[in-house]
Amino acid sequence: MEKLEAINDSVFVLRDPKESSVGGINISDGAQVGSLYGTIASIGECSFAEIGDRVHIPHYGVMDVEVNGQIYAMFKQDRLFFVNGECVNKYAMIRKCENDHIRDESGDIALYMTEKHIEWTQWVEVLGIAEDCETLNNRYIGMFCVAPENDEKLARIGNTKDFCLHESLIHFLTED
Fold first, then answer.
1. What is the per-residue pLDDT across 58-68, written as a single tens digit (0 to 9) for each?
2. How far apart are CA 147 and CA 176, in angstroms?
3. C-alpha 140: how far from its chain's center?
């Protein structure tokens, strides 16, 4: 029997079983992908996660390995951003804002948009801050900033509207 042991800054996460349906719709075997969630099975020295923690598996820099019939996601610890339902590793939890309607200069709705035509913006609201952030703190919760459209340090949390964004990508915050 092989033993799985992470060294240096590696982490091995036992992936949850693949989802065979989402929202009541069955997914064919060929279209199923590895779960985005799992449990840490082995981790090198780490200050914000330990064996047994539930984590979100990052989108980038992950390699799947099979050991004793189990599928593990292997990646570097600096890719961890969401552990036990909280942001870690200098990440902030954010939610992308929506353009709800077209408004005039006074802020009144000038043209109502149907739900299918509401667009997402690059503006995001800060929902939470990791404890180890160096430039952000809890007083920034509820403020807004611009997030990149796509970056390896911007990751969606499962199938929700929430994301984790590394603090290095937040250049300014505003209350409006």
1. 888 899 999 98
2. 15
3. 19
Cβ neighbours of 39 (radius 10 Å): 14
Q: What pTM does this model have?
A: 0.78
User: Which residues fall within 8 angstroms of residue 70, CB to CB, at 6 or more apart?
Assistant: 14
pLDDT of residue 43: 95
Tokens 């992950």 correspond to what residue?
62
**25 DSSP β-pair partners:** 22
What number of other Cβ atoms are within 10 A of residue 113's Cβ? 14
DSSP-derived letter for residue 30 is G
The token pair at 116 is: 């299918």
What tokens appear for 125 in the block?
């609201």
Distance in angstroms (rounded) separating the CA atoms of residues 41 and 13: 5
Yes or no: say if 64 and 71 are a contact pair by the CB < 8 Å rule: yes
Q: What proportions of the chain, in percent to the nearest 5, are helix, strand and coil?
A: 10, 40, 50
Joined together, the tokens standing for residue 22 give 């989402």
Longest CA–CA span in the chain (Å) reads: 69
